[in-house]
Amino acid sequence: MKKRFICLLLAVCAVSTTACGKITAEPTINTSTDTKDSTNNQKITFDYYELDDGTLEIQGYDNEDKIKKVEIPDTIDGKKVSVLNLGLFRSNEGVEEVILPESLKIIEDQTFYGATALRKLEINGVETVGDYCIYSCPKLKEVRLPEGLKELEESAIENCESLTDIYLPSTLETIDEYNFDLCADGLKIHVPKGSNTAKLVNDVVANLEYNVQVVEE
Cys-Cys crosslink for 21: which of 31, 70, 103, 210, Cβ 3.0 to 4.6 Å? Predict the structure, then answer.
């Protein structure tokens, strides 16, 4: 069943304060406001599906051209958000910051493909980052991926010209050979010293033709 979830977000260039409400039954929609400056609030509506395991997949949202910060909720109507749908922020020209919840397990293909305004991406709880997920984001300078991440699929992080630092966890099991290319010259990939992640990254970097440093720390 597809449902809709309304959050109030602060839509200014400065960091916003968010407040979310939840639906308890269709078609009744309840909202709660906890923002400090109600004059700048904008509504954002998330569309989602319930998966077979009872968790939710975020399918989309409206008002994407009017807000600069999006925080995906950890739960909606008491159910955990576990998946971001294919291309959720693809070709988005307005959103500058995205915060992902601890409950999230999968970021599907092309989620941030061509997100030209994206400057900050806070990723929590993820196990799989899909094909071309963080791709062609010209203003993104740093990516930090959490412990528990297992897989970086094809070109999951690539072609981000300002990206100077990537921080990877010790838990990675698979990194597709097509990753980390066409980012900032001198890109540093930070990995736990002596970890399997370090070995995987070194294998990928060995095939690249530009200056990439693997920093074991």
Answer: 31
Q: Which residue has the tokens 């990995």?
A: 191
* DSSP tag of 203: H
In percent, how much of the chain has pLDDT > 70? 79
Kindly indicate the confidence band of residue 43, based on its pLDDT and cuts at 50, 70 and 90: confident
What is d(CA 140, CA 135) in angstroms, rounded to the nearest whole number?
10
Nearest to 74 by CA among 101, 45, 108, 44: 101
- Measured CA to CA, the distance from residue 206 to residue 26 in angstroms comes to 54
From the list 214, 211, 145, the residue with the least C-alpha distance to 184 is: 211
**Per the structure block, which two tokens stand in for 130?**
């899909």
| Cα R_g (the chain), whole angstroms | 18
Contact 101, 79 (CB under 8 A): no
For residue 190, the number of C-alpha atoms closer than 13 Å in the C-beta half-sphere is: 11
- Predicted confidence at residue 45, as pLDDT, reads 83
| 3-state SS record for 74-121 | CEECCEEEEEECCCCCCCCCCCCEEECCCCCCEECCCCCCCCCCCCEE
Residue 44 has pLDDT above 50, yes or no: yes
End-to-end, the C-alpha distance of the chain in Å comes to: 46
